[in-house]
UniProtKB/TrEMBL annotation:
<feature type="transmembrane region" description="Helical">
    <location>
        <begin position="120"/>
        <end position="141"/>
    </location>
</feature>
<dbReference type="InterPro" id="IPR027417">
    <property type="entry name" value="P-loop_NTPase"/>
</dbReference>
<protein>
    <recommendedName>
        <fullName>NB-ARC domain-containing protein</fullName>
    </recommendedName>
</protein>
<feature type="transmembrane region" description="Helical">
    <location>
        <begin position="21"/>
        <end position="43"/>
    </location>
</feature>
<keyword id="KW-0812">Transmembrane</keyword>
<keyword id="KW-1133">Transmembrane helix</keyword>
<feature type="transmembrane region" description="Helical">
    <location>
        <begin position="55"/>
        <end position="74"/>
    </location>
</feature>
<keyword id="KW-0472">Membrane</keyword>
Length: 754
């Protein structure tokens, strides 16, 4: 369908060469332009002397004024066509523009508005191309005409084969409502936040392009004083209470009115019967009617009856493809090449800059405009372009060079925006692009020599997902990078990806799985001497989480310190913090064996080491490292009986974790505060329970802190002791069947005794 001839390929190549050369003109600088301009003027002077030598004076006078004026006008016209459109400013994704003049949808539009006022939540359902989004958008403008009361989320993901997961949809909705998306583990966790945020506001929330009901079944059935509209195809079965408003094909009169709007009254008057037949061929689909109308508008000399005669000679299943083929044949080479490249992408949509990167030219605005005019692509979500459904399965192969250009473009953009986080512009960019970047990483056929660019994309996503506390997406990013690097046989990048998965799993309280990824990273590094410093640190953390082999942990920490650069203050702060953790673990073991004085000595040593670590972290301006050191310092103070110091350091650690957007760290501090309060006296039970209930949703599913929180809750809420016992034991499941430290064994015994 989208084959391009050799002649067109040559024309496209020449066009791309010219546009790229023009884009590099500013790189010459002032000196280069003066030199090049002077050379041209000298050549022109000699040429003029040769040409004008034999011309009479009166003829030279005639050309003296018109020729320079014509040259200036021509230069202005060429530059106006060549200059790329200015880059749009990034901002919060706005509600789509109001859509007026919907043909044949007045009744459905009124039903949507009436049901929104009656029930609060409305489902608008229709097959692709039936104008479902247009009806929903227009209804929402009628319900809430002010921008401050409009909320919009487009749920079309970048993966053509798999719709976004319910959790991803819930996170996108929370971000649309200016709520942190990383604080939920399940989609249902967002329900209460949606109710609380929208109740009584008069706002309208439109979830557009929903693929399945399962994506949005977590939504509240009603929000007092607000409206929620779900619009899309919704391929699965809907519950009875949803009662969708179904959009079917347009009626004959409405279809003819829509087609006439595009081709003009004169042509309709000349061929009214042909107009009816063309609408019949489009099967009442507004999308197809508009596409045929746009093609006819671009070809005013084509009689409607001629097109009808051509269509009659084709099988029914080929009639719409016929018009598409006519559209493609009329494309200029650049637009045709872009269509081919978009059809072969493993991602469904890209922004305009990425489309230009695909082509290898400074701007693709003209090509996108040409494709959009014919209905071959859609401009969606500000400056994004998405190929229409007709070409999704065209089977066009992916072009390696174009895909490499796209990956490198994304790497450059992602790195630049990651450096600017948490600025609002950078947040907006990642909010729109993070799923696209994930899809790029997960490509089944990564282009050769893109390992470094994919690594940069993964680094940027790690920064973004850490900021948003989306730890599952952090793990998914690292796993996708490891798979791509394995395919590319890039062992360096693969080792870094395996190492990152190990670190994330350690934070999530799963040392057994973390160990597997650590082993893979270590195998790829071959020699211990070649390990990066972070790998030694993760080795120490795994050893510490997997038992009480303190000598091995100490050796790993020594190697970590040796691998660190001398001026790495944050790295040395982490080293000292882990040394202190080792000392305290040794002290806990001695305490358990009845050797209190020796344990107190170790706690005192740990306290002194942690004060040094805090000083280094503060010097490095590393909030996360300082927060972790203060968290452990609070524990050391508590073991030494300095409860006032313990509470002060916990409060400071909480503030630092909040500043570093680390909700897991803050939740650990809440659990430890609750523990200190329980061991003291005079603290109301409800106050302790409130701390634990605030911490529990923010903790990972597994880990010592999670188990400890459930132990405390089980003791304080005896009626729910069985539930908390089960959850606490599940949190310790990563240690099932492997060696475990004494603190885990003791915690397991206490949970079993609930």
């Amino acid at each position: 369908m989208t084959d391009i001839s050799r002649r067109d390929r040559l024309r496209f190549g020449l066009s791309r060469w010219y546009r790229r050369a023009a884009a590099h003109l500013p790189e010459l600088g002032l000196g280069g332009l003066v030199t090049a301009g002077g050379t041209v003027l000298l050549v022109q002077e000699e040429l003029i002397k040769q040409l004008a030598g034999g011309l009479p004076t009166w003829l030279l006078a005639v050309f003296a004024i018109p020729v320079p004026v014509a040259a200036v006008w021509l230069t202005h016209r060429v530059r106006r066509r060549r200059d790329p459109a200015p880059r749009p400013l990034l901002a919060t994704v706005p509600f789509p523009d109001r859509i007026d003049g919907l043909a044949g949808r007045d009744a459905e539009l009124q039903r949507v508005k009436d049901r929104a006022l009656e029930r609060g939540v409305v489902v608008v359902q229709g097959a692709m191309g039936m104008g479902t989004s247009a009806v929903a958008i227009r209804a929402m403008w009628d319900l809430a005409g002010e921008a401050r009361r409009q909320r919009y989320a487009d749920l079309r993901g970048p993966d053509r084969e798999h719709p976004e997961t319910p959790l991803s949809v819930a996170q996108r909705v929370l971000r649309t409502l200016n709520l942190p998306p990383g604080g939920i583990k399940e989609p249902q966790d967002a329900t209460a936040q949606v109710i609380e945020t929208l109740t009584g506001t008069g706002c309208v929330l439109l979830l557009d392009n929903v693929s399945t009901w399962s994506q949005v079944e977590w939504l509240p059935p009603r929000v007092p004083g607000a409206h929620i509209v779900v619009a899309g195809t919704l391929s699965d079965e809907l519950p009875q209470h949803a009662d969708p408003i179904q959009l079917g094909p347009l009626g004959p009169e409405a279809g003819q009115a829509l087609l006439a709007r595009h081709i003009g009254d004169d042509r309709v008057t000349r061929d009214p019967k042909a107009l009816e037949l063309l609408v019949d061929v489009c099967l009442g689909s507004p999308l197809e009617i508009v596409r045929v109308g746009r093609w006819l508008a671009r070809n005013p000399n084509v009689r409607l009856q001629s097109l009808v005669d051509d269509l009659r000679n084709l099988p029914i299943d080929q009639t719409l493809d016929f018009v598409l083929n006519l559209s493609v044949k009329q494309l200029r080479p650049t637009a045709k090449q872009l269509l081919i490249l978009l059809a072969g992408l493993p991602i469904a949509e890209v922004d305009h800059q990425a489309a230009a990167a695909l082509l290898g030219v400074p701007s693709a605005a003209d090509a996108i405009g040409e494709l959009a005019e014919l209905g071959l692509v859609e401009n969606v979500r500000m400056t994004r372009v998405r190929i229409t459904s007709a070409f999704r399965d065209s089977g066009t192969p992916q072009e390696v060079a174009a895909w490499r250009r796209l990956v490198e473009h994304f790497a450059e953009q992602a790195g630049a925006h990651a450096e600017r986080l948490p600025a609002e512009e950078a947040r907006t960019w990642f909010a729109m692009e993070d799923r696209v970047l994930l899809q790029v990483l997960a490509s089944k056929e990564p282009a050769p020599k893109t390992g470094r660019a994919l690594g940069l994309i993964a680094d940027a996503l790690e920064t973004w997902f850490r900021l948003e506390q989306r730890h599952e997406d952090r793990l998914r990013t690292a796993a996708a990078l490891a798979g791509a690097a394995r395919t590319l046989r890039d062992e360096r990048v693969q080792a870094a990806a395996e190492q990152r998965q190990c670190a994330i799993l350690l934070t999530s309280g799963d040392p057994r799985t973390a160990r597997r990824h650590f082993n893979r990273a270590a195998e790829l590094r071959v020699r211990v001497e070649s390990w990066p410093a972070e790998l030694h640190l993760e080795h120490a953390a795994i050893l510490l989480a997997s038992g009480d082999e303190f000598t091995a942990v100490e050796s790993a920490l020594v190697r970590y310190g040796q691998a660190l650069p001398g001026g790495d203050a944050a790295g040395h702060a982490s080293r000292l913090t882990n040394v202190a953790a080792l000392l305290m673990r040794k002290g806990q073991t001695l305490d358990h064996d009845g050797r209190g004085p020796e344990a107190r000595s170790l706690y005192a040593n740990a306290r002194a080491v942690l004060i040094q670590a805090i000083h280094l972290a503060d010097r490095a301006d590393d909030l996360g490292a300082e927060a972790h050191a203060r968290e452990l310092l609070a524990l050391a103070c508590h073991f030494l009986g300095l409860d006032a110091d313990a509470r002060a350091n916990l409060a400071q650690a909480e503030r630092l974790y909040a500043g570093a957007s680390d909700e897991i760290g803050r939740a650990r501090c809440l659990v430890q505060r609750a523990g200190v309060m329980l061991e003291g006296s005079g603290h109301p039970q409800e106050e302790v329970v409130a701390l634990l209930e605030e911490a529990e949703p923010r903790l990972p599913p597994a880990g010592v802190s999670t188990a400890l929180a459930h132990l405390h809750l089980g003791r304080l809420r005896r009626e729910l002791a069985a539930e908390h016992q089960e959850a606490g034991l599940a949190a310790l499941s990563p240690w099932d069947g492997i060696a475990e430290p004494k603190q885990v064994s003791e915690l397991r015994a206490l949970l079993l005794a609930l």
